[in-house]
Design goal:
Blueprint (H helix, E strand, L loop, with lengths): L1 E2 L5 E3 L1 H11 L10 H9 L2 E2 L9 H10 L4 H8 L11 E5 L3 E5 L7 H10 L9 H15 L4 H4 L13 H12 L3 E6 L2 E5 L1 H4 L2 H4 L5 H16 L1 E2 L1 H8 L3 H9 L5 E4 L6 E3 L1 H5 L10 E2 L10 H8 L21 E5 L2 E11 L2 E9 L5 H18 L4 E8 L4 H10 L4
Parallel strand pairs: 2-9, 14-15
Antiparallel strand pairs: 1-2, 3-5, 4-5, 6-7, 8-10, 9-10, 11-12, 12-13, 13-14
Helix pairs in contact: 2-3, 2-4, 6-8, 11-12, 11-13, 12-13, 16-17
């Protein structure tokens, strides 16, 4: 780290990248505390219904902890059917649908209030007040229920063709009139906040400014070094409000090679080491907090990622659920994986420009091998590999690992 002409500390692009990876728990010491420790460290884990090797919320702890049993993730994020157990987390719309530590309930009230003021959800619902009142009455009298138990989640069409009761209960969830602290399978179990949220958190009222500062400070700790838009996007706060808030916070400013303007740095990230840290090759979910905000990924890694799950098949370049491959401190490839019985199939595997197959091939193979064993498969098959000369070193490493 050196000084910049304007006086702020100056970081090389690589040091900034390694600071970010260390802050995310992908470089350096393993995050303590298992999946719940990962949630507290990252402040939010995004949810998505797509499941390829596993659901994204399972892939995030796996990337940081190694082959952690999925049941441990479920127990950390949702309390299951043991209603006497206090929840560790709750679901909240921040940057997207996420799981947050339960302690952040009072710090997210301003977001629920904003949604209440703007209107409820993007689904139209006729006679909405009546439907919402009926849902609340059912939950009050009958206890926690899934949308199916309340009357059905779908009308029978595509996944977005929700029933009236599903729209109503999701609108209530967005503004905090109902909560989700448990799931049945992957179905939300809805409950009343006074029953599910610890009373000390439910009754705690904080000024909006304190809530925003708390979320932004947590985002900076999770990102290590960040621009204001990075922080705003990470916790679902408007850029203008985020900028005005951090301007009044005593946070270190830095210049990062290749980044526009001034960035912010977590004080602990600035003083910690960036060289000689442990890493392991790993496949990352497209919804991993290191990956999901594409402008930051491009800035940190020179990596341009697009989720193609909703792109017509004939227009896909890298595949349905393309997963970036982290080797060392670089994203060196992307793999579109699938599972066929005991076989993990890499439907496509693309090396990034400039990545030498002999240099990165063993790391890619190690990432595939670990993921294969984690999901209970025994063999890896590479279908399409680009460039062609990358196939041999990857297959050789997989063979040495007993997976060919």
């Amino acid at each position: 780290m050196t000084g910049s002409p304007t006086g702020e500390p100056a970081l090389s692009a690589r040091d900034a990248r390694r600071m970010a990876l260390r802050a995310q728990g992908l470089l350096g010491p393993r995050i303590a505390g298992g999946p719940l420790g990962v949630l507290h460290h990252l402040r939010a884990v995004q949810l998505d219904s797509i499941s390829v090797l596993a659901r994204s919320h399972e892939l995030v702890p796996y990337a940081r902890l190694g082959p952690v049993p999925r049941c441990r993730v479920e127990r950390a994020f949702w309390i299951g059917t043991r209603r006497e157990e206090a929840p560790y987390a709750f679901e909240h719309w921040s940057r997207a649908a996420c799981v947050l530590p339960i302690e952040d309930w009072p710090y997210t009230e301003f977001q629920r209030a904003d949604r209440r003021a703007k209107g409820r959800g993007w689904h139209r619902l006729e006679d909405a007040d009546r439907h919402r009142a009926a849902v609340l009455q059912r939950l009050a009298s009958e206890g926690p229920q899934t949308a199916r138990q309340l009357g059905g989640a779908k009308r029978g069409g595509p996944w977005w063709d929700w029933s009236d009761v599903k729209i109503a209960v999701e609108q209530l969830l967005e503004v905090g009139d109902v909560v989700c602290t448990s799931r049945a399978g992957f179905q939300r179990v809805y409950d009343l906040p006074e029953r599910a949220i610890p009373s000390g958190l439910l009754s705690r009222a904080l000024p909006r400014g304190e809530q925003v500062r708390h979320l932004l400070a947590g985002a900076l700790r999770a990102l290590g070094v960040a621009t204001v838009p990075d922080l705003a996007a990470y916790c679902g706060i408007g850029v203008h409000e985020a900028g005005a808030t951090v301007a009044a916070m005593d946070l270190p400013r830095v210049r990062v090679e290749g980044w526009p303007g001034t960035a912010l740095a977590d004080p602990a990230a600035l003083t910690g080491p960036t060289r000689g840290l442990r890493s392991r090759p790993v496949l990352l979910s497209p919804f991993d907090p290191t990956i999901w905000y594409r402008p930051r990924v491009a800035r940190l890694f020179g990596f341009h990622h697009r989720l193609e799950a909703y792109v017509p098949r004939h227009k896909r370049v890298h595949g349905y659920f393309s997963m970036p491959v982290l080797v060392g401190d670089a994203l060196v490839a992307r793999v579109d994986p699938g599972r066929e019985g005991e076989v993990l199939v890499a439907r496509s595997l693309h090396l990034e420009p400039g990545a030498r197959p002999d240099a990165v091939g063993p790391g890619i193979a190690a990432a595939l091998a670990e993921a294969t064993r984690w999901v209970g498969a025994t063999t890896v098959v590479l279908e399409r590999v680009d460039p062609d000369d990358a196939r041999r070193p990857i297959e050789a490493a997989l063979g040495a690992a007993g997976l060919r």
